[in-house]
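Archive transcription. Copying these from loose printouts into the bound notebook so they stop getting lost. Printout 1 of 2:
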Amino acid sequence: MSEIYNRRFETTLEGLRQRHLHRAPRVLDTGVGSETRISGRNVLLFCSNDYLGLAGHPALKAAARDAVDEWGTGAGASRLVSGNLSLYRDLESDLARFKHTEAALVFSSGYATHLGVIPVLAGREDFVYSDSLNHASIVDACRLSRAVLRVYPHGQVDTLERLMKEDAGRGNQLVVTDTVFSMDGDLAPLQELCGLCERFDALLLVDDAHGAGVLGSNGGGALEHLGIRSPTVVHMGTFSKALGGLGGFVAGSALLVDYLVNHTRTLIYSTGLPPATLASNRAALRVIESEPQRRLRLQNHVRVLRSGLRALGFSVPEDPTPIIPLQVGTAEKALSLAQFLWEEDIFVPAIRPPTVPEGTSRLRISVSAAHGLNHVERLLEALRRYAGQAATCRVAEGCGGAP
């Protein structure tokens, strides 16, 4: 390889190491679950987005096996050529019913959904408004759209309203937000956002990746949880979190879906998903409907863990989601806490910049219905020991790593 590029790579990587920001993903030797094996070590997994424990569910595995036997391993082409298997039609029909919309459209991933859909909904003459803590896929898609981009401070509806007033009448307006923010686990002010979009005749695209399956009386997501039904909303989500599979989707009106099919480049130019994935995604929707006890179990785990963390002195918000951030400040401190838990046979990697802002490095704990209460207690006990060690350390010499 070019020596110029080699020097650039080496210098950049060394800079990351010095700032405690270098990453090297660990390799799992077994499937995702409440417990797994990493580098020959059996550990509790408290960082997966498999919130309902569906990634290993027998019904999903059986659906995938049956699909391979009947359909083979690949779609063979894009959906507009010969890759639009009837499995897509069945999945999208069930998905529309799940999200209470006229139609739905499935993409190869959540990232691909945003990169394809947002530039179709907003162009050079339009305005896009994005929450400052939106997922990277939303950020990239907004830039790709070439629309005028307005980034409003996290959750600040008053600022968003002022920006929309200033831009009113100058182009179409699209507001984009996560429903559940992936690093903090908090909910967007969805009622207020819907109201604003209705007033300004704007479109609201909500990414419910971390809400679908988890929130709502039927697992329908954050909008169902809040009792919101609005014609201004375009629903986006993924199968890769609580639904235990792979793929992204949009749900909305039949007119919207028809428009997206004919304009969205990440659908037009991407090979269709494998039959096994489509079949297991559909099975996941059925399990969410037939096994509500999984969601109730998860909610109980969340209450126990949040309460236990507050009792240990951690600042933990009162959100209903299974994402619980333990902010410790610097990347070095986050790495120290992650290493402490690793030595306790608990895997929760440190989350550092640029994923989160400078000074807010953390451990992002995520809970699953696959966990038992004994797993939650093990995590709390380990954090209790860490808090005690950190307190002793501060009294003695003020050593690093304390929360």
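Printout 2 of 2:
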Amino acid sequence: MDDVDEVARKAESAGGTVIVAPMDVMTAGRMAIVMDTTGAVIAAWQPGQHLGAKLVNEPGAFIWSELSSSDVAKSKAFYSAVFGWGWGGGDDYPEAQVSGRTIAGLMPRRPGMPADVPDNWLVYFGAADVDADVKKGTDLGASVIAGPADIPGTGRFAVLLDPQGAAFALFQS
């Protein structure tokens, strides 16, 4: 992100809400947190001395983000206006793209999701063995929301809540 102040301005113009106004994080960088037009919260980072994730797409590291949205068209419009994202994938699973590279997924809100759960972003971490990592997580106090389960032709995943209630997912390709 080149300018989180501009992200905050664009988010408000697109109908979102600035939750945390752009602020410096010492010399590491600058950040802002915004809520999109369906209620999902996302943070923007403008690097200073800390560029961001240096390790990705490996076990234990960030590999994917996925938005669960109650209004896919509204979400696509917001993220296009604020971040300039293009869209690929299909109608059932649009994929956010930057410079033609897929960076995140957008999933329609699942039927039966409790009404008190807001639209949200889910972060996926790589796993060498999803089942072993789920066991380790539950041994450490996490609870399983979904899985472990196979996604045919793609891999294996699970969604957990950490002991403080934050959701995250594991994925093994």
